[in-house]
Write a structure and sequence with these properties.
Elements lengths: L8 H23 L11 H8 L1 H7 L4 H13 L9 E2 L8 H13 L10 H18 L5 E5 L2 H16 L3 H4 L5 E5 L5 H9 L7 E3 L13 H10 L3 E8 L11 H11 L3 E4 L24 E5 H4 L7 E5 L2 H5 L30 H36 L4 E2 L8 E6 L4 H11 L3 E7 L2 E7 L7 H13 L5
Parallel strand pairs: 1-11, 3-4, 3-5, 5-6, 6-7
Antiparallel strand pairs: 2-8, 7-8, 9-10, 10-12, 11-12
Helix pairs in contact: 1-4, 5-14, 6-14, 7-9, 14-16
């Protein structure tokens, strides 16, 4: 007799209720800072503790044994909702986005093809229309992808199609170049390699001491590129930079690109959400001049990973990025399909996460979240400047602050914090000098947290 592998609905309900209870407890104790912010148990030890090999081999998990597994699993993770989580540019997701993940996990509306998920595709199209309006692309087009790296690749595919329309069929011309500041996200160089240009085709732009594009020196960079026999495929600017959170002069760069016929791409993965804040949208002045921009929702729009938008000023440019033939997918009238604009064939219901956060919090609520995190970072900068031994190389424009304490090994201080689980922060080199880096993402991070961090750094550092 053939086994019935349909869902046991009662078992699902019991396990689902247990999941909600445990996640609620996990987020609550994380927000209150009642546990270490990070644990780094070695993989072999953790695999044994979780019983991974046994479960993989034998199966047999029940709703009850799943609860025990989930308790350990959550306890050993990094807690993004924790006030001391000031490390990476990953959101402490809001609960509406978590509900969207739960819905997707059950329904699996893989909606790059409209007939596979009409409601999911419709939500995505409407979310994209809203994002395009915020950027200033009323007639543009867009698509959601699984992350900013894939989004940058997709946007630059559109740029390649504009400059070298036959590259898809005939191969990439050897004279293309990509202009970008050295501070650009690593995915820009990675995209150049994937696109067939090669890393050496990335021409570094002149920047100031903090890595921002020097607009006055752009003519020289363009002249060097053309003198080397290369055709610029695109010029990339940051809103804001991954390391510092600082914004390039988008209007200055955009006007230069428009005057010289260059594709202008803005990597707004982290900082485009400032468009929702009345007090910070000026940081993106000129973004409407871009030919393309990416915008990650899983950073400042509080969705879970991953959900990133590729937005273009002219819809046809995105449609030209891919040229595919597959008789089982591409045929007839496919007006509402998104598969022709994205690397992914099966795509998660990404728009639902953004939509539910908007539906619960509203555009203004998300803008207030952005403003709040930017304000907390600025407060850290103010507090740090008042303390002896601390040095901040710039006034923050976003929720990212870089700083040093004394002249000791900053990376070693960070490692001590991670080992004790007191704070999760990162580090970066600025001008060849290692700095500690705070990224304020959790709404739970407050003045008490900032003061505690400023107390802990000297305690773990060599005496001044």
């Amino acid at each position: 007799m053939t086994a019935n592998h349909s869902w046991d609905i009662d078992d699902f309900v019991r396990a689902g209720e247990a999941t909600v209870r445990r996640l609620a407890r996990y987020v609550g104790e994380s927000q209150r800072g009642e546990t270490p912010v990070i644990r780094r148990t070695p993989p072999r030890e953790l695999a044994e503790r979780l019983g991974l090999a046994r479960w993989i081999r034998d199966g047999g998990m029940t709703a009850e044994s799943y609860e025990t597994f989930l308790d350990t699993y959550l306890a050993e993770g990094t807690r993004l909702h924790h006030p001391a989580s000031v490390g990476h540019q990953t959101a402490a997701p809001d609960f509406p986005a978590a509900l969207a993940d739960f819905v997707h996990g059950a329904s699996n509306g893989t909606m790059a093809v409209y007939e596979m998920g009409a409601s999911a595709a419709t939500v995505e199209l409407e979310v994209l229309r809203w994002m395009l309006g915020k950027v200033g692309f009323p007639e543009g087009g867009g698509v959601l992808t699984h992350g900013g790296s894939l989004a940058n690749l997709t946007a630059l595919l559109a740029a390649r199609a504009s400059v070298a329309p036959d590259a898809w069929t005939d191969g990439v011309p050897g004279d293309l170049a990509l202009l970008a500041p050295p501070s650009a996200h690593y995915s820009i160089t990675r995209a150049a390699a994937i696109l067939g240009l090669g890393e050496r085709a990335v021409v570094p732009l002149d920047v100031d001491d903090l890595g921002r594009i020097d607009v006055a020196r752009l003519p020289g960079a363009l002249e060097r590129t053309r003198r080397a026999g290369r055709r610029p495929m695109a010029l990339v600017a940051a809103a804001g930079a991954t390391a510092t959170g600082l914004y390039d002069d988008l209007r200055g760069v955009g006007e230069f690109c428009a005057g010289h016929g260059l594709w202008f791409h803005v990597d707004g993965a982290h900082g485009a959400s400032a468009l929702l804040s009345d007090g910070h949208r000026h940081l993106l002045d000129g973004v409407e001049l871009a030919d393309s921009i990416i915008w990650d929702a899983h950073k400042m729009l509080r969705t879970s990973s991953l959900a990133a938008a590729v937005l273009v000023r002219r819809e046809a440019d995105l449609d030209a990025a891919f040229r595919q033939r597959a008789s089982y997918l591409f045929y007839g009238d496919q007006e509402f399909d998104l598969i022709g604009r994205t690397v992914e064939c099966a795509k998660a219901e990404l728009g639902l996460k953004i939509f539910l956060n908007l539906a619960w919090r509203g555009e203004r609520g998300l803008g207030e979240h952005v403003a709040g995190r930017y304000a907390t970072a600025h407060r850290f900068w103010e507090l740090a400047r008042e303390r002896p031994g601390f040095h901040c190389p710039y006034e923050p424009e976003s929720n990212i602050v870089c700083f040093r304490y004394g002249t000791g090994d900053q990376a070693a201080v960070r490692e001590r914090m991670l080992a004790e689980g007191s704070f999760h922060l990162t580090s970066v080199e600025l001008g060849g000098v290692r700095h500690l880096r705070v990224t304020v993402m959790s709404p739970a991070t407050d003045d008490k947290t900032l003061e505690a961090l400023l107390d802990r750094v000297p305690a773990l550092s060599p005496p001044l």
